[in-house]
Structures
1.
Amino acid sequence: MKLRYFEYCGAYRFRLTFENGEVKEADLQGLIGRHVDPNALSTAHIDSEWGCLEFLNGLVDIEPKTLYRYVCAVADKRAA
């Protein structure tokens, strides 16, 4: 499930659109906070071939499947 679009919402929050059309908003600090400084969040981009969310010119990347599972798990915790 590739990432198609993203919108940076501030702090570590991102709105993510996946190839199936689902739009998820989540705080990614738990996933990338140890690897990406808040000042480097603006380096986010999507690898067009793999659909990964990348930071720091590809030094940090999140596989789309991992990203999707993470944002779904975060959403499930908020709903509970």
Note: Residues 64-79 form the longest helix (16 residues).
2.
Amino acid sequence: MPPTDPPASTPPTALAGRTALVTGASRGVGRSVALSLAQLGARLLVVARDRKALAEVQQEIVDLAAAAEVFPCDLASSSEIQALVSRVDAAGGCDILVNAAGIGRIGRPLHEMPLEDFDTIFATNVRAPFLLMRAVVPYMLAHGGGDVVNISSLAGQGPLANGAAYAASKWALNGLSYSVAEELRAHNIRVSVVAPGSVNTSFGGAGKDRAKMLQPEDVAAAVTMLVTQPRHAFISELRMRSTQKP
């Protein structure tokens, strides 16, 4: 689907001169976020495991008259993240970081979950955002500010049967985000959480009416709103639900 048109009050060049790094950018929410930020003039650094899908997103961004660089990376691998950080530094850093990548492994009770699945969930959903924030914040500090948006979930605020590890990872991401926000707010760096309910992506939604679910473009619109707010304010948490229960 095409990116959601920005609000009429948002100038089409609102993000001109800014560089945005978006993880999980090959599909779903991450792709929609990357396209929406490009539509406002941002230069994109797009990150995901699927090199071919990233190349397709890169072309979509170029078609929007914006620039994009592709960074294939498995965010569950700390060594690949280290290599990614070096490439981002060489590319000139970033002003906006959107941690949209996430995995769930939902569908089985905790006592049946393999340890490697638990470790992979936390590596992708918590450690990767930590490592990327730690990497880009010095650049933001040196350049007078920036924006970090971490895509969490309503599952990070309540119980999720047969998804305990996923829920726990999102609770952890929330705590990490809120604490870092307090550390950085005085430095003109805004750290926000977007916590959607079920989104119509390949991630989940089995048995639900996908037409009634949140769409990736809905989440992208929320991210766009957060990073284009006046600099004197920020929204620390944004919870999203579909109007009708799917």
Note: The first strand starts at residue 19 and ends at 23.
3.
Amino acid sequence: MRSRYSAFVGRLAGYLEATWHSSYRPAFLDLSDSPNWLKLQVISSSVDQNKGQVHFRAFYRDGDDIAFMEEKSDFIFEDGKWYYLTGQTS
């Protein structure tokens, strides 16, 4: 999760695509309107065999304010690597 957050900060679409499971990966990833990310807060994480979940908040600048998005992300471990599947925002 932390490496994917860092990739969003650096607008590294190639890394995000490579760590997104092929069954859920979008055909095109446009990060041009990505906000100015400030901080990642991992609230919880869990692993059950080859499935994982991370609950996090990612803080960003919104004009003069600071806002955040919160998500529970699902991951799967395949071929020796973790891949992002989907996320549910709240």
Note: The mean pLDDT is 96.
4.
Amino acid sequence: MHRRVITFSRNVFLPLTTACANRCGYCCFRTPVREGCIMPPDEALRTLERGAGLSCTEALFTFGERPGTVPGFAAELARLGYADILDYVYDLSLAAIRRGLLPHTNAGILSYEELDRLRQVNASMGLMLETTANVPAHRDSPGKDPAVRLDMIENAGKLSIPFTTGILIGIGETMEDREESLRAISDLHRRYGHIQEVIIQNFCPKPGTPMEDSPVPGTDEFRATISLAREILPADVAVQIPPNLADAHDLVRYGVDDLGGVSPLTIDYVNPEHPWPQIEELKRVAGDADLRERLCIYPQYIEKGWYSSLLEPLIRRLAERIAAPDRRRGA
């Protein structure tokens, strides 16, 4: 009898800018445009090099949505010699590849053409759906329009991009809204086959935000949502929870397949008050399951060849490297 497997990715987290066109009621990531609001190239390159030295396989690039539309941001970006943040992430993706890290970019809403360009230098990409409901928390966030987000996720499917999405629970949606969101994701995957994982993420109140005093989802509610996700989503889509935001050891039994990206170097910049667990703690979280490292592109998409020729040598090399410990265990 095969043991259940729970996976994780070893990554470095690079928040390229905290400038953002959205003003979500729960967010502490967004900050006003100011000098130094963009991660400088030398810091980014140093992070990539240190991450590679710690055997990380993924470079997670993330930033606020459409920062170029925020007044003052273009001038700050021009100091680095760029006219578009996507040009910057493209160049850093190439730098990551050269250092042995697979890029995964979560850049908010992107057009079909922008997705197509970035897929050449990204092994996978992502966008949280969050919810299909229109909630007050998104009142000042045009990029959180559910139709706009679903359209981008669909475009990723049309482009055969291995994709991560998810829902954020506790931001004003109901359990019925969560079911609707999960069914929308499931429907897109059944059409295009590109959703490799769905994150079930719990809302965590942040001091100084409009929702700082809002109630958090209870444990039973979190368990029920994970179970609902596992029931609705196709079997080849992993259900992921962030192991630093909840009692993950208690939750894995309800249908969790994956613990996401965990970094030995960088913090969770979206939830800085919650440190990443390290490998020994992940083993405790996995319990009786077999904890295995994965790449940011899941094995089925490697088999399908859903990557650019530029990425192929690195994907093959890293896949061989992380498979070696499993072979030694006789897996």
Note: Residues 5-11+106-329 form a domain with the TIM Barrel fold (CATH 3.20.20.70).
